[in-house]
Structure formats: structure tokens, C-alpha cells
Amino acid sequence: MTRQRAAYRLTSAIAVAEDLQRELALHGITTDVNDGYGLAVLSVWHGLVVWTNGDLLWWLAGWNDRRARAVYAWHSTADLERAARRIAARYRDLRTATGQV
Question: For residue 8, which of 55, 43, 53, 74 has the smallest C-alpha distance?
Fold first, then answer.
């Protein structure tokens, strides 16, 4: 096995989601995790659902009025700590926008 192939490790979506759930808990954010069909979903807040396939995370980051379509943010699962900070920032934005802070 080559060094490159040995370094590459497939991680299950549910394992990544549970790790991210722990990282978000450090920010005081409680989530629900569900999985199926090779994907996992973290329900964070109304309008904030994080999807993962084990390699990438993605979530709705906003709306583009000009193009009339959703804008998604994504992050590699290699750095869940940073991903959790980004998701926590989006969570705070959504809560502030709805007067929940």
C-alpha cells in the first residue's frame, strides 16, 4: 500500500457527525444527529442543518436574491474544531436575526 493510500482513511458519516456534535457542545450548542443512506445530518437550529458524507460538511449559509437560489458553506471534516466555530457563528447569526439571543 502506498504512503498516500495509507494516509487516506474513510470515516463514516455518523462518526464524523457525532464528533462534530461534541465540538458544537463545547460552544453550548445542542444538536440532534440522524443518519441513513451514507449521510448524516445534525439538526442545529431552525434553518441550520449540517450534512456530512464523512469527508465534507455543508450547510445553508444564506440566500442569493439575484440568482434566487441557496448559498451553501462547506468545510472539510479534517478540521472539525474550525468547522464547529464556523457553524457556531452561523447559529449565533440566526438566533440574533430571530431575536432569540
Answer: 55
